Automatic annotation (TrEMBL):
This is DUF3052 domain-containing protein. InterPro entries: DUF3052. It comes from Actinopolyspora mzabensis. It holds the Pfam family DUF3052.
Length: 145
């Protein structure tokens, strides 16, 4: 049995793995009954506020995108959610793990990211059902003088 302290620490660890910092503004898109509430609660606890919903129009540091295979066109969605994203902001594309309903092939995420001028920077396993893929703006190529 896990002690309450350990459970709280594990939740915080999830938010730390997602690079969530206190006072960050986090927007959540694609919420449904199947999302991992432990991840959501850890992020809220770490950033110190509630997750903004899809209709928020504030500049955000992180977008938490819950995405399933049947959710439509990932490239279009990425382009839409980039508008309120801060210059140094990141998008976490949360997808069901391999073998689960709604699983998205990693190559599909990579292709959508590249088309949206985003770079895939890391992947994380989150709980039993979800995988997170971190996307960030591509850095401009350095020019030689």
């Amino acid at each position: 049995m896990v002690a309450a302290e350990d459970a709280g620490r594990n939740e915080t660890d999830v938010a730390e793995k997602l690079d969530i910092e206190p006072d960050m503004v986090v927007q959540e898109i694609g919420w449904d009954e199947d999302v991992d509430d432990t991840v959501r609660e850890a992020i809220e606890q770490r950033c110190g506020g509630e997750l903004l919903d899809e209709d928020a129009d504030e500049v955000v540091d992180v977008v938490l995108l819950w995405w399933r295979d049947e959710d439509g066109d990932l490239t279009d969605t990425l382009l839409d959610i980039m508008a309120p994203l801060a210059e140094e902001g990141v998008i976490w594309v949360m997808t069901p793990k391999t073998g689960l309903d709604g699983h998205v092939e990693p190559s599909d995420i990579a292709e959508a990211a590249a088309t949206s001028n985003l770079a895939q920077t890391s992947n994380l396993s989150l709980g039993d059902k979800w995988t997170g893929t971190r996307l960030a703006y591509r850095k401009p190529a350095k020019t030689k003088r």
